[in-house]
Amino acid sequence: MPGDSHESSDLRTISMSLPDAAFSALLSEVAPDVLVHCAGKASVPESMTNPHDDFASHVMLTEWLINQCRRSAPNTRFIYLSSAAVYGQPDELPVTESCPIRPVSPYGYHKRMAEMLCEQASSLFGMQTVVARIFSAYGAGLRRQVIWEAARQAVEEKSIQLHGTGEETRDFVHAHDIAKAIVLLAEKVSPDGSSYNVASGVETSVNILARSIAAKCGACPVAFRGKRRGYDPERWRADIAKISEVGFEPSVSMSEGLDDLLIWIRKELARKVT
Predict the structure, then answer these.
(1) Residues 122-148: pLDDT tens digits?
(2) Does the residue 250 lie in any domain?
(3) Alpha-carbon distance 145 to 137, whole Å?
(4) What are phi and psi of 227, to 5 degrees?
(5) How many structural domains compose the chain?
(6) pTM as predicted
(7) What is the pLDDT of residues 213-224, one digit of tens each?
């Protein structure tokens, strides 16, 4: 609810459901140096069943936020967290920022539309905007994507069963590395609407991922349903040369990241029981 807040010496959190008129007042009051826009739905399957809501949560909300910044805090650097979903099924790997944009889901299309709003804001209104195209994010607190689902199943159900054949690949990037990338985008790049891949640069098959999780959970069985969904890309590996030029270097290994994730999931399940 608007106005619901918690304050400490160096942190204030305020909860509200956007769009909210209170947000404009907050922008005028704070005049932030940086605004990181990570609001919006995060489910590709849901975008297929309810594309209107997905459009509203990405395109309409991003337009509203940009407009609020333009009016109330025009000097704010606006960082939009987009997705590798804008690339769809790439023709070749690794995927660079100049690769063709061919989404295969409403989610991917809507992310691209929101990117274009950032480009427009920079080109036409002189706003400072930057786009982060995040690949397969994971880590404690993130309850989505295949890595979360596989880990949750292993801990809670003692077995793993996933969509696809297992031969699909992803470029997994830990939340800690994403945070490091955002800091670099806030401090080191030209805010001219440009896009940057945020990923590890490593291609990992879903089969290898699932079996790594299973091994960490007592060798539980792993199975695949055998058919890839049309909106699931077959292979992903990002070219991260562009963001590396400003100092980005992934630091969390897959093994370390999985250990961290499994610890968090076990704590969450124990909390439910109690």
Answers:
(1) 999 999 999 999 999 999 999 888 999
(2) yes
(3) 8
(4) -135, 125
(5) 1
(6) 0.92
(7) 999 998 899 999
